[in-house]
Amino acid sequence: MIEMPSLQFAQTNGIRMGYYEAGPKSDTPPVILCHGWPELAFSWRHQIKALSEAGIRVIAPDQRGYGATDRPEAIEDYDIEHLTGDLVGLLDHLEISKAIFVGHDWGGFIVWQMPLRHLDRTAGVVGINTPHMDRAPADPIELFRMRFGDQMYIVQFQDPAREPDRIFGSRVEQTFDAFMRKPVPRSDTAPADKPVAGVGASPRLNLAFPQMIAGYDAKHDPRTPILSPEEKKVFVDTFTKTGFTGGINWYRNMSRNWQRSGWLDHTVRVPSLMIMAENDHVLPPSAADGMEKLVPDLEKYLVRDSGHWTQQEKPDEVSAKLIEWRKKRFG
């Protein structure tokens, strides 16, 4: 039995956003849970239950381009200014002055931007797998192309013909079968875990995800699924309806985000927690080395024996750490 609160809607920043809320409305500051690609608010189902039962107010949106939330046509409507602005608008809708923002994967990239762009609305930040990094020295798409070649999935995502969107959209169940699994020790035959935008991976990893999905057969995959059939159905049914273009449009703004961020001070000036996953092959714990220079008030925590989908692979441990840190830092 999957437990999720009832779906609600907010008008925010020019779109209608679907979100889920649980826990006492009197609790402050509340926790906003921000998912990655290709995910949904549903990815936080375990944390929504655990945090709300611990007396913490928790809110998990389907973000712009995903699930129950609007999917604008224009690519530039998915830049970091829009994505962070959506969260500010959600706070306005709920009449919340400040929140703790928790993000995994692409959601992690967004939540680390919140105290840089909206410090007055940000009480704290938690990154799960995704570290905070300084501005790249050059356009990140060009850096990816130089390091990994044209087949690297983020480079492929820039394709104006949207071939990756078509490949994923025509193989939705294959996509989630391939991605949502526990890792095995690296070998030449195991599919790569899905990496996160903006962070370097090992050149050994197979990052040609559209082609990997096109040739994928679950019968030959030795890795253990992390979703029950009922849970997988939620993702498959949702993305069958919405397609993948909304989420991929976040990647299509990486050059724009880089060009428009030269003015930002990248120092994070709020209490912060970095949760790392021991076996995330693309975002290893070492990706967070040196974060303290940019995040002076930082605690780090390592989740052992977890791959990329940490809050779903090790839900009890992640929830317990979030509750412990939230109560220690905010009462």
Explain this structure to me?
By secondary structure, the chain is an alpha/beta fold. The chain has 13 helices and eight strands. It folds into two domains: 196 residues, Alpha/Beta hydrolase fold, catalytic domain (Rossmann fold, 3-Layer(aba) Sandwich), CATH 3.40.50; 112 residues, no CATH class. The protein has an eight-stranded mixed β-sheet with strand order 1-2-4-3-5-6-7-8, with helices on both faces. It is globular. The chain starts with 6 loop residues before the first strand and ends with a helix. About 5% of the residues have low confidence. It comes from Bradyrhizobium valentinum.
Distance between the first and last residues' Cα: 32 Å
Q: Indicate the CATH topology of the largest domain.
A: Rossmann fold
Main sheet overview: 8 strands, mixed
Portion of residues in beta strands equals 5-15%
Name the CATH architecture of the largest domain: 3-Layer(aba) Sandwich
Class by helix and strand content?
alpha/beta
> In oligomeric terms, what are we looking at?
single chain
Number-wise, the strands total 8
Unreliable stretches: 187-203
